[in-house]
């Protein structure tokens, strides 16, 4: 039995982890795959910082891949969590905590007429698709190349070469029959979108899109493209699902729904909604959500759904963000941070750029055009990122360990800290 993890370094711990978990991890990106070193093992987190088992402190821009918009262990959230731990952990029965969060969300976001809490973004997406199929009596789903919607079988699918509906899965273990129900089309391409609808419109139950695609680089879409997606759904009686698991409560209180003014039929949330605990949510039009059991025939359940600790952490996080005008604060801080990096890269005459949207940022290789599709991502992206990531890590900045993941600025990242981090990243860029 290994009980003493205190005296081992990250490399030794990773060797142990490799024996007990596939790739040594419980979610793939954590493994530092392709980065030629063992992942850092952490033991503590606070505010903008992570502490490794080697007692090294890092400024953290991964922030658990997005949930921690207030930073690690925000004191107000921590107090609520402690209170909840001393009150109840889970009921498996009706309780007051999910009611409060549900009422807060539905009264704050008018497009969320009714909702259901689940325990992850994946579950939210999976359930929303089920509702869409039930509501329309159709089977196919249209998604966009480069958009990630969790590890749902039917959405782990990338485009085949054509638009004939013969999609190929991007994971082993997914049956061709399931993959074939998912159509894929490129982002930023109205013509191809129209073509898919021309061929398959009557079969498409729903179009699912990350309105701010941020899981394969940051692929900001033109508002006209998103409008076109909404319009074509409407014209074909297909539902529109906004997957706001990453953008929801991140780009603003009302997420991309508010920013674009587009009203989707269903919206999925995760990450920030649980304030650092496992919570997901899907919701939207009441007539659609009424299809969900027990009011309707679409079965969906969860033993730990609407877990009180996540409910309290989520509500406290959202209310604090609202009270502090947090989204504006983050926009300003991130703009300054990104400007410092841009200036720094330019000064060194490096072919490296940085884009941001609200408090999400993405460092990428030089591109003459705005990157809106995965094809536009520079070929040398992985190589460019690797050196920058490893040198930044050495100097105490932890970026998400993958060239195609975005960075997150939290309320715990002060202007001073961001300038310090910017210097380190600029020094690390060659
Ligand atoms: C993270 C993410 C998911 C999956 O959420 P999990 O909680 O990891 O299951 C789905 N969609 C988007 C847009 C995401 O960013």
Descriptive overview:
The protein is of the alpha/beta class. The chain folds into two domains: 5-73 and 325-428, Aspartate Aminotransferase, domain 1 (Alpha-Beta Complex); 75-323, Type I PLP-dependent aspartate aminotransferase-like (Major domain) (Aspartate Aminotransferase, domain 2, 3-Layer(aba) Sandwich). Helices cover 36% and strands 16% of the residues. It has helices spanning 10-20, 75-85, 96-108, 121-136, 176-179, 190-200, 223-235, 255-260, 286-289, 308-323, 326-347, 381-394, 415-428; strands at residues 42-46, 49-52, 57-60, 114-118, 140-144, 157-158, 168-169, 182-185, 204-209, 239-243, 266-269, 280-284, 352-357, 360-365, 397-398, 407-408. A seven-stranded mixed β-sheet has the order 4-12-11-10-9-5-8, with helices on both faces. Strands 1-2-3-15 form a four-stranded mixed β-sheet. Strand 10 (239-243), helix 8 (255-260) and strand 11 (266-269) form a beta-alpha-beta unit. 47% of the residues are buried. Mean pLDDT is 95; it is low at 159-166. It binds pyridoxal-5'-phosphate. Pyridoxal-5'-phosphate is lined by residues 120-122, 125, 148-150, 210, 215, 243, 245-246, 270, 280. Pyridoxal-5'-phosphate binds at residues 120-122, 125, 148-150, 210, 215, 243, 245-246, 270, 280.
Strand order of the largest sheet: 4-12-11-10-9-5-8
Which range best describes the helical content: under 10%, 10-25%, 25-40%, 40-55%, 55-70% or over 70%? 25-40%
Please outline the major beta sheet: 7 strands, mixed
The percent range for strand residues is: 15-25%
Distance N to C terminus: 44 Å
Give the low-confidence spans: 159-166
**Inertia-based shape:** globular
In total, how many domains does the architecture comprise?
2
């Amino acid at each position: 039995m290994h009980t003493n993890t205190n005296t081992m370094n990250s490399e030794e711990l990773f060797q142990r982890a490799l024996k007990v978990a596939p790739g040594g991890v419980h979610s793939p990106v954590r493994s530092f795959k392709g980065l030629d070193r063992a992942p850092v093992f952490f033991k503590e987190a606070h505010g903008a910082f992570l502490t490794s088992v080697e007692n090294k402190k890092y400024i953290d821009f991964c922030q658990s891949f997005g949930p921690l918009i207030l930073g690690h262990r925000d004191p107000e959230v921590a107090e609520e969590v402690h209170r909840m731990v001393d009150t109840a952990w889970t009921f498996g029965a009706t309780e007051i905590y999910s009611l409060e969060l549900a009422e807060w969300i539905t009264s704050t976001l008018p497009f969320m007429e009714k909702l259901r809490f689940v325990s992850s973004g994946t579950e939210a997406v999976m359930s929303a698709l089920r509702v869409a199929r039930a509501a329309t009596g159709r089977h196919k789903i249209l998604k966009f190349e480069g958009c990630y919607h969790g590890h749902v079988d039917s959405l782990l699918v990338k485009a085949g070469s054509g638009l004939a509906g013969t999609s190929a899965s991007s994971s082993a273990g997914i049956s061709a029959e399931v993959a074939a129900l998912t159509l894929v089309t490129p982002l930023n391409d109205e013509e191809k979108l129209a073509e898919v609808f021309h061929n398959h419109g009557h079969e498409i139950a729903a179009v699912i899109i990350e309105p701010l695609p941020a899981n394969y680089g940051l692929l900001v879409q033109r508002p006209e493209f998103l409008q076109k997606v909404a319009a074509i759904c409407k014209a074909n009686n297909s539902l529109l699902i906004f997957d706001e698991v990453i953008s929801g409560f991140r780009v603003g209180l009302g997420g991309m729904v508010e920013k674009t003014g587009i009203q989707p039929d269903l919206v999925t949330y995760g990450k920030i909604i649980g304030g650092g605990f496992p919570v997901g949510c899907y919701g939207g039009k009441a007539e659609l959500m009424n299809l969900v059991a027990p009011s309707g025939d679409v079965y969906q359940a969860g033993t730990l759904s609407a877990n009180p600790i996540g409910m309290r952490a989520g509500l406290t996080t959202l209310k604090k963000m609202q009270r502090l005008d947090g989204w504006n604060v983050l926009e300003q801080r991130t703009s300054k941070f990104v400007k410092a990096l841009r200036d720094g890269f330019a000064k060194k005459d490096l072919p490296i750029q940085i884009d941001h949207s609200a408090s999400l940022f993405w460092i990428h290789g030089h591109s003459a055009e705005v990157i809106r599709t995965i094809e536009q991502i520079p070929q040398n992206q992985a190589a460019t990122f690797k050196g920058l990531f490893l040198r930044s890590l050495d100097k105490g900045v932890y970026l998400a360990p993958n060239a195609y993941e975005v960075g997150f600025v939290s309320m715990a990242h002060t202007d001073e800290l961001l300038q310090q981090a910017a210097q380190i990243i600029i020094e690390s860029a060659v």
